[in-house]
Amino acid sequence: MTPHPNNAATPDPTVQPVPASVSDMIDAADTTLHNPKRAVISLGSNLGNRLETLQGAIDALEDTPGMRVKAVSPVYETEPWGVPAGSQPTYFNAVVLVRTTLPPRSLLERAHAIEEAFQRVRRGGESRWEPRTLDMDIVAYQGVVSDDPALTLPHPRAHERAFVLVPWHDVEPGAEVPGHGPVADLLPALSGQGVIHRTDLRLVLPD
What we know:
Elements: H1 20-29, E1 37-45, H2 50-62, E2 67-72, E3 76-78, E4 91-100, H3 104-117, E5 135-141, H4 162-171, E6 176-177, E7 181-182, H5 183-186, E8 196-197
Antiparallel strand pairs: 1-4, 1-5, 2-4, 3-4, 3-8, 6-7
């Protein structure tokens, strides 16, 4: 595939991972992160500049008071769910790990606000299969299990979706989906879902 015409598509060989000790010091100095919780957020886009949109969503999460983005997965390309093959553009998907003091409902509200900033329109019903500029789902939150219809945790279909589990496994190999087991054990059953690793594209942790 042709590399995406975006500066983030070409990794900078001079960029080094931030040492965990430095990251911990930054967190300790951040007074908005008192007793933070860990959350997993799935990102997807199949309209417009998909890579730029995903990076913009990550930056917006980092700009949220009481939240820090701790890890960003590689980019994967997938076919849309629930529609005939070729009827919509493919998705770019990624997963981010965050630490946040926001409770689950507030985190959901923030995710919806970021979607709206990228012109995402939610209508429900069959329109859930429509193409979208940005889709953000809270996959898991600090091991919480909840059947609240407004925000079911973990995400009720995450364990069935390679476009969620594959990038999640990349950034957290020991992750588990509460109630379903280790991500690594769930992946073999999803190997036929056609998730393509876009090695020519790259998302970055915000500064």
